[in-house]
Design a protein that fits this description.
Two copies of one chain form a homodimer. With 381 residues, the first copy, chain A, is an alpha/beta fold. Chain A has helices spanning 2-5, 35-42, 54-70, 89-101, 116-128, 142-148, 186-203, 205-220, 223-242, 257-266, 276-293, 299-311, 328-337, 365-380, and strands at residues 12-16, 23-28, 48-53, 75-80, 109-114, 134-139, 156-158, 161-165, 173-177, 341-342, 345-351, 357-363. In chain A, α6 (142-148) runs parallel beside α9, α10 (257-266) packs across α11 (276-293) and α13 (328-337) packs antiparallel against α14.
């Protein structure tokens, strides 16, 4: 934790240790402009396709293409619509065919310039074209920088559920430019911040306390922002290195996500109503309150977690989602379809307090249902 | 080679050694009827989706479903059209959604009952639903038994080229029922036999000589058939174990395939004109003649390879493909788009004689072009 006390302006590097699939995450300002040089130095001779969305393209694509060109990297851009709907079979096929049409080879790269949507789709494409090409991530949302840039999960959504189709495919390099986050809306920044808070709540109580002190500076930019991102990447990398394929400890990263995914599904992934990080924020608050109800966690810790999320402008209750209308049965279906279901019993991430989350493998669906009914009744009252 | 001299009627097992991804291939008669028991014993408690094609469904699906049911395995069938066109994005999406709709979990299985088309598609589906489910192969064509059942390659075609999209996903178990091959057309049996011959031509001259003596018995059925399949699986497994991700020695398995794929593409994958194994047979003959022309291989060995393929009813020259019309430029484009291209130089599998194939990494495209022009001129003459 020493690093957290003395943030520096220098660029940080987090190494994700996965044997021959190990890679570096560079974190700091100016990395889009430096991308060409960094990529050319580490992956000499590659050609690339840059996949991005229309919003990010307007703001940052020109800078990236200039940087790649001046480093001598032959790259073709592909601009997709912004939004979760882009994680579809249709866009997958379109992007795959574009990469093949650009005659890229196995050693060439798909470069994702965008948030988690672009990262997940592009990583999947890189994982399946020619059974695996190189993948470079330039995450431009806070959420993508602290979450999807570590772990190698890629994929798309099915009409039947989120992230149900994909592969594990590790990037060769991640460039997290903290400066590009300045163009991100406050709402999207806060959504990403929910995942930062998550690492504190899982098993880093000191980090959580540091976040309580430095939240405003992180939102404003500056060295605390890079430090918060680096610590988040270290936190996730530590879990992933211990458990690359998500059978054991990695499940902890789902804190807030079982409830969160069910809420996202009930909103039909309508980002006007709820974005992923907001679902996670509500989900984490629910996980803490459910843990209190089960006698696992004391009430003060749950309140402390909620207060911090609220101070960051994040929702913590289902009734804060505009539009309403969440029948318990529908949420339970969402939870049942979640990847974490295993033969009838539910696996939930519960907690014994701030930084003391654990994997509960035998949660009674009836207890979850009763808890949700009370949460919704409280909202209606 | 002792095993080859004394074939037995007993079921054979070939172990594919890939560390924690190791699996068994069982080879022998009656394995469709025994599938339920074998799967239930090795993968207790699983549920499954059986993916097959309409032709195979008519002949063998009922027997498999009965076997699964009597072993207590809850399985849903999905019947797709027969033929190479089924290896498409459209069928991929359809199958993925069907597997999700059946509410199968990660530990459950996709069972492929069919030839290489069904195996490749189903394996890809198993590799991407929930980022990887179990996969059981029940290959019903000779080609699928001796080739696609070993190695973990899965995938679909792009309109721009064959097998350009997919993943490596190893099966948990392969059941190669030698009896189901009795319903295969002689043409399809011969096409699969081309891959059997390939293992002899790559690096098993004794196996090639054994095939020369036992070809008729293999086509007729009986213990020599199971032995030829087992030896083919051992040959491929040895290469794959040494090189799971296909960068080095595994390239040898492409003997005949660079030419073969170009011919298949030029025929627009029209199986009335050319099936995969026929393309490979012509491709192997071309590889031998090209090697003779380059002064690498003596003419007798090339003739011996051709004679054996012809005796099996396989084509060895481009002009044997009905419909004709193979401009050299089109074949060269097919070769250039092949996965084995690497920055302008061509990689080909050439040979110094029967069982002495090697990877040539620096083949001059002009030499290939001149050779093909002569082959086609010879045909026209
Ligand atoms: N692979 C993983 O491990 C992982 C982890 C967490 C989340 N995810 C996935 O990530 C997705 C959510 O990520 P997200 O929140 O980044 O979504 P997103 O990619 O949709 O980005 C959110 C919005 O911000 C915009 N945006 C991105 N960068 C910007 C910038 N610098 N300036 C201005 N606007 C910008 C985008 O255009 C988009 O409209 C979900 O699909 C989720 O499933 C994946
Ligand atoms: N994954 C790999 O490693 C690998 C290796 C080699 C080939 N392949 C792929 O395999 C495919 C070719 O395989 P294939 O030749 O088996 O094609 P296929 O699956 O199309 O089968 C050929 C035909 O035989 C029929 N058939 C299959 N079993 C039968 C049976 N027992 N009785 C009667 N009819 C039967 C099928 O319905 C089909 O019409 C190609 O797509 C090729 O790319 C993959
Ligand atoms: Zn998340
Ligand atoms: Zn083949």
């Amino acid at each position: 934790m020493t690093a957290l006390l003395e943030p520096t302006t220098a660029r940080q590097t987090v190494r994700v240790d996965l044997g021959e699939r190990s890679y570096d995450i560079l974190i700091g300002p100016g990395l889009v402009a430096a991308a060409g040089a960094e990529i050319a130095r580490r992956l000499p001779g590659i050609r690339a396709m840059v996949v991005t969305d229309a919003t990010v393209a307007d703001l940052h694509l020109a800078a990236l293409m200039t940087s790649l060109a001046s480093a001598g990297i032959d790259a073709t851009p592909l601009v997709l619509p912004a939004g979760e709907k882009t994680k579809s079979f249709e866009r997958l096929e379109e992007t795959v065919e574009a990469v093949i049409a650009a005659r890229l080879e196995r050693g060439d790269a798909v470069i994702a310039l965008g948030g988690g949507v672009i990262g997940d789709l592009s990583g999947f494409v890189a994982g399946i074209v020619r059974r695996g090409m190189r993948f470079v991530q330039i995450p431009t949302s806070l959420l993508a920088q602290v979450d999807s840039s570590v772990g190698g999960k890629t994929g798309i959504n099915s009409p039947q559920g989120k992230n149900l189709v994909g592969v594990f495919h590790q990037p060769a390099l991640v460039l997290a430019d903290t400066g590009v986050l300045d163009t991100l809306s406050r709402r999207e920044f806060a959504a990403g911040y929910a995942e930062v808070v998550k690492y504190g709540l899982i098993d880093r109580p000191d980090f959580f306390a540091w976040l309580e002190r430095h939240r405003e500076a992180i939102f404003a930019g500056g060295p605390e922002r890079a430090e918060a991102i680096a610590e988040s990447c270290r936190a996730k990398a530590a879990v992933v290195a211990a458990d690359e394929r998500e059978d054991g400890a990695r499940a902890l990263l789902n804190l807030g996500h079982t409830f969160g995914h069910a809420l996202e599904a009930a909103c039909h992934y309508d980002s006007d109503r709820l974005v992923h990080g907001e679902g996670v924020a509500i989900g984490m608050a629910l996980a803490h309150r459910f843990s209190v109800r089960l006698g696992l966690c004391n009430g003060q810790d749950a309140v402390r977690a909620e207060r911090h999320l609220e101070a960051a402008g994040l929702p913590t209750r289902i009734d804060q989602i505009p539009g309403g209308g969440f029948p318990v049965a529908e949420l339970m279906r969402g939870i049942g379809q979640d990847k974490k279901v295993s033969r009838g019993r539910l696996t939930f991430i519960l907690t014994r307090g701030i930084g003391a989350a654990f994997v509960a493998r035998d949660v009674d669906p009836a207890a979850v249902e009763a808890f949700l009914a009370d949460e919704l009744a409280h909202a209606a009252a």
